[in-house]
Amino acid sequence: KAFGNSRIPGDVHKLFAEEMVQLYQPLRLKQTLFARQSVLEKGSLMQEIPKPGVDPTQGVKASRGVAMADDSGKIGDRSFRRTISEPYKQFSRPNAFGGIKNRATDMATLLLTTVLRNKIEEKMSFAPLFIDLVSAFDYMSRQLNFEHEQPVFGNMQVGPRAKAIIRNAFLFTWESVEGVSEILWTGRGSRPGTPHADWAFGTIMSHCVNIIIDRCEQQGIYLTIAFENNSPILTTRKQGEGVVYVKASDILFVDDLALL
After folding, report:
1. Kind and range of the H or E run holding 247
2. The model scores a pTM over 0.85
């Protein structure tokens, strides 16, 4: 597995698991007590990975930048991720997938095909809009998520100690680049390469989509699917007894969005 700035391979942690527990336990206790993450764990190592099928002579276009966090930091981040996983699930949109336990992505496909089949039976035009944000994790606003007067993260049902620890994990972060002596301080982004990356961005994404959908619904702009009452069977009847209309929520997969 890839390693971070310490250059300690992940296999070392696997082979000497008992010794590593004794090594990291005091650090984890200090992190919990003082709500601070160590300087090494706040950093990541940037590496270039060649893109398959791209001519290497094209320079930066021929490779993809990948941030690799140190394993020591990942161990601590994963433990706090367990604390935030359920609050994040409750905060996220019902049709948000990716990084959320017990939400199979197959449900996203099922929802999309169900809407498509329903509109075909109604002889209506339908075209979902797929949006893939460019470098979404890298450009996430930490100010909006953690430091604003009413931060998005503040709306999650997380204890004060856990909130302080997670907020600190996004302060004074830095990156090093292979072959470059200077250290780069980072003030935005969801810390790609760490266990925080997906949920930290997901909170912002869910918040923004909620605002968009609420404003659309206020204008009467939303999609519905018609079902037979108390039945999973679709119907093409526009109205009448036994017809139930259900709002079809837009589908969100971390930084990918399907607008219905």
Report:
1. strand 243-247
2. no
